[in-house]
Amino acid sequence: MLRITPRAARSAPVLAALLLAGCSTTSPSGPAEVAPVPRIILDTDVGSSTDDLFALEMLYRYEDAGRCRLLGVVVDRPGEANAAFVDAMNAWAGRPELPVGLVRRGPEKAMVFIDYALVADATDADGRPLFPRAAPGPGGRPDGWVLYRRLLAGQPDGSVTICSIGFLSCLAQLLESPPDDLSPLGGAELVRRKVARAIVMGGTFAKDAEPEYNFAMDPEAVRTFFRLWPRDVDVVFSTAEVGDAIDYPTALVLSDIGPTDRHPIRQVYLQCDCETGQRMWDPLAVVQAVEGDAPFALGDRGTVEIAPDGGASFARAPDGNCRRQLPGDAAWNAAMLEKIRSFNRRRRRIGRCGRGRPRPVPRSSGRPLPCPPPWRPSR
Ligand SMILES: [Ca+2]
């Protein structure tokens, strides 16, 4: 069994960055300082469930509103088509140069629930691509763990939030990576230096539950993650049971994304059967990565143990670096669905972008809906 245990004090600069995250300060002699926005790397198993697509769309909109910086996207489901779909989403959102990495040693046989990746290659009646996109730059598309190293090495210490909404394959490979030209630090130390925390959609801690999908598809990577992840960097889990109650049915998606909108998500819902029992698991990790802990009820600190099949168990421990979102009640679930939907209703048409520089991205006219008040469990 594997354990993550003591949470040691971090360096002063890191603590300062963490204290500033999500708050403003006023100095006695000057105006209020602007709190730094989270710098986020999204790690996704795009190419199966559509909640990954909504999560990515939300990050664009949060960034438009000045609430975060999206540094790049790591695709942890094998297959160039999956990474190319993210290219199409990025280009559609006015971000054709956003770097996208792809796992090269990942779970090749991971179950696919909705095989939508090739929708990115759809054409109009004249045979023209619906979704032009930038090709990977010189040197080709980076391996996922290489992109992690490149992005992390270029960021201030303690500034990066990793939002993992897929498998842990690339994170495990990052943690195992040796020093190289990108950084003199090995992967685990690079994470310890640069990462504020990780928000991980994965696992279930319900008693006697089957291993959760994200953990079960590459359990060896999950075990490596827990073995090597620095014990003084927090991990917050959005487990399956939190998102299980948040359903965003096809009819609502198609009503929110208007009929004149050729958005990739709309095309997926038009061309694929998306009623496969999926729920809005991944957006909950994005909300916490950007907006912090306030919208959520969190469980106590603790440690996580991983079984060989990817099954996870949680044990309370005051000095543990693991926490978890607690499932909400009906009102909280409804309000969170409304919030997720608001990102699609507010989306603006953005000019199609080809290779080269993106067109300017219009600023969002409004902020995302406020989160529902945190739901507190009765104990
Ligand atoms: Ca996912």
Report what the structure shows.
This protein has a single domain (35-345), classed as Alpha-Beta Complex (Inosine-uridine Nucleoside N-ribohydrolase, Chain A). It has 13 helices and 11 strands. The chain has helices spanning 12-20, 51-64, 80-92, 144-153, 169-176, 187-194, 213-216, 219-228, 240-243, 250-256, 264-271, 282-291, 330-345, and strands at 25-26, 32-33, 39-44, 69-75, 100-102, 160-165, 195-201, 234-238, 302-306, 312-316, 322-324. The chain is 32% helix and 13% strand. The strands form 3 sheets. Strands 5-4-3-6-7-8-11 form a 7-stranded parallel sheet, sandwiched between helices. The protein has a two-stranded antiparallel sheet with strand order 1-2. The protein is α/β, with parallel strands linked by helices and 379 residues long. The chain starts with 11 loop residues before the first helix and ends in a 34-residue tail after the last helix. Calcium ion binds at residues 44-45, 49, 52, 165-166, 282.
